[in-house]
Design a protein that fits this description.
This protein is α/β, with parallel strands linked by helices and about 240 residues long. It has nine helices and seven strands; from the N terminus they run αααβαβαβαβαβααββ. About 45% of the residues lie in helices and about 20% in strands. The chain has a seven-stranded mixed β-sheet, sandwiched between helices. A hairpin with a 2-residue loop joins strand 6 and strand 7. The protein starts with 6 loop residues before the first helix and ends with a strand.
Length: about 240
């Protein structure tokens, strides 16, 4: 008898494909730019770890809900999620931090193709190295405080990124930490002891739950990117 273990995941992927056709029609603003960005990532040899189209739309919707004017992103990759965030409003400005110089180049190609170079800045370097510069610029009034933060970088530093972002965010800011569900492995102690990504995901969830500055929840996800989840926080 064939295994049914993967049936729910396949159905979830099928549901994503069905929903994309209805919620992201070909005439959707930036649809061609997003298609270019997705293809450019593959062509340029970047890892297939970008958000899905519906997840990207989710980020844009969150920015729209809170009327975000300034967004901060940790982990640009090829600029796909960056373009989604920037698509939320013609007024929003995005600062994105990317460790890899090749990824930054690919992202800037896609951002330029989308006509967003005037509203999106990609800073190259490790997140914890670049963050102090951004914090300094905010404190000196050279850069505005942020309303939205998307963290999709090295999981071991999730908590450091959240704490650093809080210092330069406006009250009511939305902070999303991606890929912390880890296919449910966060609930397994042994996984946390042996996998630093699981440990980092656990730590940021536990820290958010104890932080009086935040209201937070875990949202588990399933779809064409498999089974994972993200931490959704609001700064009080």
């Amino acid at each position: 008898m064939p295994s049914t273990e993967n049936i729910p995941f396949q159905r979830a992927a099928d549901a994503d494909a069905w929903a994309e056709k209805r919620l992201l029609p070909s005439g959707y603003p930036f649809s061609e730019a997003l298609k270019f960005a997705a293809e450019n990532q593959v062509k340029s040899g970047l890892p297939d770890i970008a958000v899905s189209p519906l997840q990207g739309k989710f980020l844009a919707v969150q920015c729209t809900l809170i009327k975000a004017k300034n967004a901060l992103e940790f982990g640009t990759l090829g600029g796909y999620s960056t373009i989604w965030i920037a698509s939320s409003s013609p007024e929003i400005k995005v600062t994105s931090i990317e460790y890899d110089a090749h990824h930054k180049k690919v992202a800037e190609e896609s951002i330029a193709n989308a006509g967003l170079s005037d509203r999106v800045q990609v800073l190259q370097g490790a997140g914890l190295d670049v963050l102090p510069r951004v914090q300094k610029e905010v404190k000196e009034g050279k850069r505005e405080k942020f309303d939205f933060v998307f963290i999709d970088a090295d999981k071991e530093n999730n908590t450091n990124y959240v704490n650093g972002a809080i210092e330069i965010c406006n009250p009511g800011a939305c902070i999303i930490v991606d890929n912390v569900g880890r296919r449910g492995r966060i609930a397994i102690d042994e996984e946390a002891r042996t996998d630093p990504r699981v440990q980092g995901s656990r730590e940021v969830i536990e820290a958010a739950g104890k932080d009086p500055r935040l209201e937070a929840t875990l949202v588990q996800t399933v779809g064409d990117k498999g089974y994972d989840g993200f931490l959704l926080c609001v700064l009080k």
